[in-house]
Design goal:
3 helices, about 60 residues, mainly alpha, single chain
């Protein structure tokens, strides 16, 4: 039996980045939009908005 691949913790942005990278590799014009659409379908608008807000706060704290 194959070992189950562990996914990054939800809300860290690593899952989003992985989906965006996969979409870019597949030739998407806007890979981040593809990742956002997938996330909205999976988690809903409210939860995606909450995670996006948390990500923006985290980025602002890092000084980027």
């Amino acid at each position: 039996m194959a070992a189950k691949k562990k996914t990054p913790k939800l809300g860290t942005g690593k899952r989003f980045a992985a989906v965006a990278a996969s979409a870019a590799k597949s030739g998407a014009k806007n890979p981040k939009a593809v990742a956002a659409a997938v996330g909205r379908k999976k988690f809903g608008n409210a939860k995606m908005a909450k995670m996006a807000t948390a990500g923006r706060r985290r980025t602002a704290r890092k000084g980027r």
